[in-house]
Amino acid sequence: MVFQGSNFPATNPAVAGKTQLVPRHEWTVVNAAVRDCYIPAERLGFSDFGADCGQINLLTKKVQGIPIQHVRYTTKTNTVAIRGKVGGKQSEVMKAVLKELVARPDFAGKMFSYADRRMWDVANGHATPGSAIMWREWNMAHHIIRMFTTWLPCLPFRLRKRRSMRNLNKSTFLGPAKWI
């Protein structure tokens, strides 16, 4: 059985300078199916469009303009949308957004994924925030690792935990995974 859904709205739910929690109802439903319907987890596929909604708009022309400085961060129960204030230098606004993220109690920690490490580095002034494409990559990379670490205990295989971020291959989306 394959379950696919998204509760994330088609437009950014956070207003400028604010944080918005979006409950992950699709995750609640799939967990209830495993728990209450006696469906073995290894027989259930799950897809949730990552840190995004189910509406996909493919751009047919080049879009120009200032991107909205924000992050979408998946926790165990919510997607946290933190949006920067309007105005100011893009790099400073995004640094403030990421400072707010890493100060949250539901931030998974800088060693959770390469994306978490990168967001932590930016928030603490050790790296530049890059571009909107990079922010989206970090949103998705963190989300995928969150899903793996949440879903994996239900599955019949395991991942080895990485001991260090030092040897991380920055050109890969998820970083090196070691299957056992």
Q: Helix coverage percent of residues?
A: 25-40%
Order of helices and strands: EEHEEEHHH
Secondary-structure content class? alpha+beta
Q: Report the strand count.
A: 5
Tell me the fraction of residues in β-strands, as a range.
5-15%
Kindly report how far apart the N and C termini lie: 25 Å
Question: What is Rg?
Answer: 17 Å
Q: Could you describe the largest sheet, including whether it forms a barrel?
A: 3 strands, antiparallel
The total of helices stands at: 4
| Spatial strand arrangement across the major sheet | 2-5-4
pLDDT < 50 stretches:
168-180
Mean pLDDT: 78
Morphology: globular
Architecture overview:
The chain has 180 residues and is an alpha+beta fold. The longest helix has 20 residues, at 132-151. The radius of gyration is 17 Å and the shape is globular. Helix 3 (114-123) crosses helix 4. Residues 168-180 have low confidence and may be disordered. Strands 2-5-4 form a 3-stranded antiparallel β-sheet. A two-stranded parallel ribbon has the order 1-3. It is 31% helix and 12% strand. The protein has helices at residues 25-36, 90-103, 114-123, 132-151; strands spanning 2-4, 19-23, 45-47, 70-74, 78-83.
Characteristics:
180 residues, alpha+beta, three-stranded antiparallel beta sheet, two-stranded parallel sheet, 4 helices, globular, disordered C terminus
